[in-house]
Write a structure and sequence with these properties.
Elements lengths: L1 E14 L2 E6 L2 E7 L6 H13 L3 E2 L5 E3 L7 E6 L21 H18 L2 E4 L6 E16 H4 L6
Parallel strand pairs: 3-6, 6-7
Antiparallel strand pairs: 1-2, 1-3, 1-8, 4-5
């Protein structure tokens, strides 16, 4: 499972042409689910993301988590994070989970995050979304459940 974290001041999602979700300062999480992922991957990432100190304290040091600042987490499904671009000019998505399984794990991820962070918003699975955000920093971090499990190094 791959999560791209962006520290944000605000974020909104339009799905299929209609306003869908919005949040204030915190994190935007673009979430990609691979065909080998399970609930353990989601739990590991949620636990890490909820405590990751990437917000600045009074001394302008990144010592605070999203919970410490009372921030929000916007979670947006993004199967393209698993794109393989090794061959040819068109990426393939053979490593992405099938939509049915990906949606279950996306929902599980969101439900798990809601237990760890009070304000969680979601993008809409299987829709054409436009994501608007005000990036803060910018601070962007890629988190991989395989790294957390020790199966891959960064």
């Amino acid at each position: 499972m791959i999560a791209v974290l962006q520290r944000i001041r605000s974020c909104s999602v339009t799905a299929d042409g209609e306003p869908y979700s919005e949040c204030g300062a915190g994190l935007l999480v673009l979430l990609g689910v691979s065909k080998d992922d399970g609930e353990e991957d989601a739990k590991l990432l949620c636990e890490k993301i909820s405590v990751l100190c990437i917000f600045c304290d009074g001394d302008d040091k990144m010592n605070l988590s999203v919970n410490d600042i009372g921030g929000s987490v916007m979670i947006v499904p993004n199967f393209t994070l698993l794109a393989s671009y090794k061959k040819g000019k068109r990426p393939d998505f053979m490593y992405s989970a099938r939509p049915e399984e990906a949606e279950k794990l996306f929902d599980f991820f969101c439900d798990t995050m809601e237990k760890l962070v009070p304000n969680v918003c979601r993008g809409k699975f299987r829709s054409d979304m436009q994501v608007s955000l005000v990036n803060d920093g910018p601070v962007t971090i890629v988190c991989d459940s395989r790294v957390l499990k020790g199966e891959r190094s960064i």
